Amino acid sequence: MTTTAITDIACLVTNDPSLGDGSPLGLIRDAAVVIDGDRIVWAGESNRAPAADKAVDAGGRAMIPGFVDSHSHLVFAGDRTQEFNARMSGRPYSAGGIRTTVAATRAASDDELSANVARYLAEALRQGTTTCETKSGYGLTVEDEARALRIAARHTDEVTFLGAHIVSPDYADDPAGYVDLVTGPMLDACAPHARWIDVFCEQGAFDGDQARAVLTAGIAKGLHPRVHANQLGHGPGVQLAVELDAASADHCTHLTDADIDALGQGDTVATLLPGAEFSTRAVWPDARRLLDAGATVALSTDCNPGSSFTSSMPFCIALAVRDMGMTPDEAVRAATAGGAAALRRTDVGRIAPGARADLLLLDAPSHVHLAYRPGVPLADAVWQRGARVA
Ligand code: NIG
Ligand code: FE
User: Fold this and answer.
1) Any idea which ligand is nearest the CA of 137?
2) Mean per-residue pLDDT over the chain, rounded
3) If both were cysteines, with which of 114, 278, 376, 386 could 38 make a disulfide (CB 3.0 to 4.6 Å apart)?
4) Domains annotated on the chain, with CATH
5) ipTM of the complex
6) Cα dist. 120→98, 114, 117, 229, 317 in Å?
């Protein structure tokens, strides 16, 4: 294999405290990284770098791990511009808008859906996202959900079955029947194509008992749980996620003290999705309280045509710092190592020997610029599995 040394990195975020200055970000000043094939083989101070076959000069810029976006909904067709416009004129967000996207998605061809996933993943990659989870949830029939997952799996390993996004319009008068469908024939058809099972536990979607039924059925089929929890109001989602040792409770916008304690003590990551609060003009989740309680926090885009039509992790970092009480260091860590934790992955989200060579070189001298220079395209170069892709 050919080794490549990336040298003259002014500021390297490793997310490995043992490598750097002892901070959670594991910062190294004047650093180098050596990659071999799809792996990182060395990271440290430039003057100690081992010889390599090739060299890339980072020109005194900052490098961080590629972003890990652990929550997106990319298998969809159409958009919801009118709904967004109405919201910006004062109409509140409601989960009912999901039905618009369900109709458009069902009507779309496989090729159209696959091209959409590819387009948004490419858009994210250009901004530094090298790992991206994505979900079904706009099909809501056995065939349409299985199709969405098959298409998602062509593009990413992190695929989530969200048949329990809302009660299908076909079952409007029989929500219990829809839960039976999701936990029975739909799960049978979908489980082979997914790693995760998710449910939208919220008023207007699925209550605590229904969510528990969905998640436990998925677990019995070998899927791992994650939960859309406490987005629009208080509810049982977070407690259920922690009780079932879900990898992540996502949204976490409306939390009680008991919810914060549970997330602080359990292994379930609190995944915050500030694009959704931005695009629905909702209150911000309190990242500060979660961090102070000891919770692991992830930041993700929630990219979807209804509540958060952004693929930009830098945008989410800037919002989290400005409006959710996170420091720039915490937000960058949440968008990299936090996302990896929310996907229970140790091979991404860090720059250390053995990790995947997923790297983001910033057109800036420090990772802090991601929050300091909001809206500015700072992704200078991106490596995914050792290949330079942007
Ligand atoms: O995570 N909350 C549920 N699902 C998405 C929104 C989906 C939509 O509005 O199309 C979310 O915000
Ligand atoms: Fe979501």
Assistant:
1) 1
2) 98
3) 386
4) 3-66+350-388 (2.30.40.10), 67-342 (3.20.20.140)
5) 0.97
6) 19, 10, 5, 24, 19
